[in-house]
Design a protein that fits this description.
By secondary structure, the chain is of the alpha+beta class. The chain is built from four helices and six strands. This is YCII-related domain-containing protein.
Length: 121
């Protein structure tokens, strides 16, 4: 059995951050070229870390909130997710240093958290 644990990485991005506003203000052809560059860099990141990736995940769409009052449309900063395996929280976080989400694309950050066992499970 491996000593490695699962970690959920959530990608965060806000339309209000200055980097995002600058991204959308770019001419369409410039933005498309940067997007191609970013996708290539993201694919290279996946290739470099494929042994650590449990579920590549993907982008997230519109959000619905469900509570005691029912279901309603809402917004948040979640833009995507990936699940990785690592020996420690620190090692999992280091996998995402200099990630294209925020070095090429205008994402805010990536948050990494351990996936804990279900109590009593």
């Amino acid at each position: 059995m491996s000593d490695q644990k699962l970690f959920l990485a959530v990608f965060l991005g806000s339309k209000d951050n200055p980097r995002s506003q600058a991204w959308w203000a770019l001419p369409e052809d410039t933005r498309a070229e940067r997007a191609r560059e970013g996708i290539a860099a993201w694919k290279a990141w996946v290739e470099e870390h494929k042994a650590d990736i449990v579920d590549l995940g993907g982008p997230l769409g519109k959000t619905k909130s469900i509570g005691e009052e029912g279901i309603e449309d809402t917004t948040n900063a979640l833009t995507g997710f990936t699940v990785v395996r690592a020996a420690s929280h620190e090692e999992a976080a280091k996998l995402f240093e200099r990630h294209p989400h925020f070095t090429i694309f205008p994402g805010d950050s990536i948050e990494v958290m351990p996936v804990l066992p279900i109590p009593g499970g």
